[in-house]
Design a protein that fits this description.
The chain has 295 residues and is α+β, with helices and mostly antiparallel strands. It folds into two domains: 104 residues, Pnp Oxidase, Chain A (Roll), CATH 2.30.110; 142 residues, Pnp Oxidase, Chain A. The protein contains four helices and 15 strands. The strands form two sheets. Strands 8, 9, 10, 11, 12, 13, 14 and 15 form an eight-stranded antiparallel beta sheet that branches. A hairpin with an 8-residue loop joins strand 12 and strand 13. It starts with a helix and ends with a helix.
Length: 295
């Protein structure tokens, strides 16, 4: 099965992510293209002039991830395997990896967590929600606006760490977090509204969720932003008779489809950019030889 999947990866020129120990490398990832399967090995190559491999990686094992579209009408799925580098080639860009015993499908692209590119950033509003503490008004609900970012791409890019069909992770400025800390404790309920840009101004993709704070992390570094994990519980449907739907099990399917389209777009952009880097590097490498021949 591993050989079949990697053979398909070679046909698609799939992008592989080699993860290096972040404590031992300034750049913990290398992005590589599958060049082919040779016997019991797969050959991968870095793209671009400034992304070499290190000889010390030879004979070591590393985790590899890659996206593979196994069905033409389906979105790519993320795969993972532990691979041993058997050879670092002389160009320091090409490596040979022993065929893994197995390859794991990490997800069905349903729970994808995506760091959005600037062109896809939504407007974002978050309210804290709680029942009244006054026993005589126990049916009343209190709300507090915690965050409102409309047409503020820079601020949204800093705050929205990642998003999936089932939730999102927010990095909040410390003064904002401390001001609303009691509304951001684990288990607190939230109301979140997101509006993603469409191809036309009147084609925005709007979503509204009842959510909860699933976790929070407050770093010791005073300059670092506290992070809050948010889980979507219910999504408001569309139309005149819209109802709230439970999305705890599988996430919001409408948002999933939108994020999948973004992810596929990023994947294609990455492949295109890496191929352009290689073409540029090949062009530069050929110039000195061409000049010597002319001389």
């Amino acid at each position: 099965m591993a050989a079949n999947l990697l053979g398909l990866a070679a046909q698609q020129q799939a992008i592989f992510q080699l993860t290096i120990d972040p404590d031992k490398a300034m750049e913990p990832f290398r992005y590589m293209v599958c060049q082919g399967v040779k016997g019991n090995s797969v050959v991968l190559a870095c793209r671009g002039p400034n992304h070499n491999c290190c000889k010390i990686w030879e004979k070591q094992e590393f985790p590899f991830r890659f996206l593979l579209q196994t069905h033409s009408d389906k979105f790519p799925r993320l795969h993972k395997f532990q691979g041993r580098i058997t050879e670092i080639h002389g160009d320091l860009k090409t490596i040979t990896v022993a065929m893994p015993a197995s390859i794991t499908v990490l997800e069905q692209r349903r729970n994808i967590r995506l760091k959005l590119h600037r062109r896809h950033l939504p407007s974002l509003s978050v309210w804290g929600v709680s029942k009244s503490k006054n026993e005589s008004q126990s049916r009343l609900v209190e709300q507090r606006l915690l965050l409102e970012l409309t047409d503020q791409a820079d601020a949204v890019q800093a705050v929205l760490k990642n998003i999936s069909a089932g939730g999102m992770r927010l990095a909040l400025p410390r003064p904002l977090f401390e001001e609303h800390m009691e509304w951001l404790e684990q288990g607190c309920r939230l109301l979140a509204r997101l509006s993603f840009p469409g191809q036309e101004p009147d084609q925005e993709h709007g979503y509204e969720f009842i959510a909860k704070v699933s976790n929070s992390r407050v770093p010791d570094d005073a300059d670092a932003c506290p992070e809050v994990g948010v889980q979507f519980l219910s999504a408001l449907g569309r139309g005149h008779k819209a109802r709230w739907r439970d999305v705890r099990a599988e996430g919001c399917l409408e948002l999933l489809k939108l994020l999948q389209s973004y992810q596929l777009e990023y994947y294609r952009d990455l492949k295109k950019n890496l191929i352009m880097r290689e073409d540029s590097a090949c062009g530069c490498a050929s110039e000195p030889g061409a000049r010597r021949k002319a001389g």
